[in-house]
Amino acid sequence: MNQASASGAARALLRRDLLLVWRRRGDAINPALFAVLVASLFPLAIGPEPKLLSQIAPGIIWVALLLASLLSLDALFRSDLEDGSLEQLLLAPQPLALMIFVKVMVHWLTTSLPLLLAVPLLAEMLFLPPELLRVLMVSLLLGTPLLSLIGAMVVALTVGMRRSGMLLALLALPLYVPVLIFGAGCVMAAAEGLPYQGALYLLGAGLALFTVLTPLATATALRISLT
Amino acid sequence: MNPILRWFHQLGSPPYFYRFAGRALPWFYGAALPMLLWGVWTALFVVPVDYQQGDSYRILFIHVPAAWMSLFIYFVMCVNAFIALVWRIKLSELLAMHSAPLGAAFTLLTLLTGSLWGKPMWGTWWTWDARLTSELVLLFLYLGVMGLYAAIEDRRSAARAAGFLALIGIINVPIVHFSVEWWNTLHQGATIKLFGRSSMDPSMIAPLIALAFATKLWFVGSLLARTRVALVEAEIGKDWVRTALLPNPITQGERHERVA
Description:
heterodimer, B: 260 residues, 9 helices, 79% helix
């Protein structure tokens, strides 16, 4: 019998998932729109004072992106569960962790990457000092894949449930805390002229570690919740 | 087979555990209660007043054992969750899941007593210190485990999923602790620290130790009691439940006769 190699299967899955997103490309902009809307609520709620806004802008942008990433997580396995292809992935001879890594990567590419493109706009709306934008972008570039990877573990645990929205937030947010602290913290440190590279290095180290570990954990979680 | 090892294996069987827990329960509660009373009485009336903090430091005798318990119970929960995931022992699933509410209660107690102490001492109910933040995240993790366990219909896969979440969370707590510490040191100077154990007067240590042991014993007793009930609930159709709970056990055959 002819069996696809692991890398071949990963490529096929990548192509399929990207194609699925492309066919419904209207939905793909929603997380970015959501983040822009959340961020624009803050000036309305706390007043349009540029000094205050520029101080809290990194935190607002981080939280807006984190929430957008969280809300879009629910869709990570949902359609695959409904049409049965998730079970085929579980049964496939290729390593499940690799397949999950591909799926998480697609999730990041299609939800967080558009968000990152919207960040300069958000930064301008919230009067973020231009010299901080670079630090913010780097921290988000390292942090948002971490959010997707960590979130995937939690989604895998709740995958069989019909209404998991609130529960998903309750489970995922405590795990997001360190990423948020380092990500927003390093921009805040940079704003005060303090060294910020340490937090970025830690985010990078976390990303390297979690890229390897969380797909394995997600695979285990999927097997738990689908058997 | 080694008798201790055999006893341990037998403990995994629900009827055996049910009987064992029923017998052991009063001993744990019985040992915890005098220690608890002595510890609280000594802490409140015997131990001298602190030269700096006055009487309000006495809340520490509840706060510190509760804080130790909040971490200890998480550890117990994770060990049981690990056993449940690897060897699929039903009893371990129940032990892990019924540790969670107790742990959450101790964590909440830690946070409440801490903020009651913080108001006169630090002048604030809350500060985003590393310990406080990690304790808060710990509470959220407990609540997450409980929420996930309650949300999944099939009890056994619910326990496995929630146990797995607990195991993911155990990595998270130290990371949160250090992240806030490093973040704060990036941000500002040293934050206010709770005083260490070593700098404590010996007369204060005795009641603290007594209370630490009393809370542990009480936890074991309470966990056994909860797990007993949960076992009955999980095995409601089994014969051993009927023989254990009814004064005059009716077998399946007799029941059919009586109904007829």
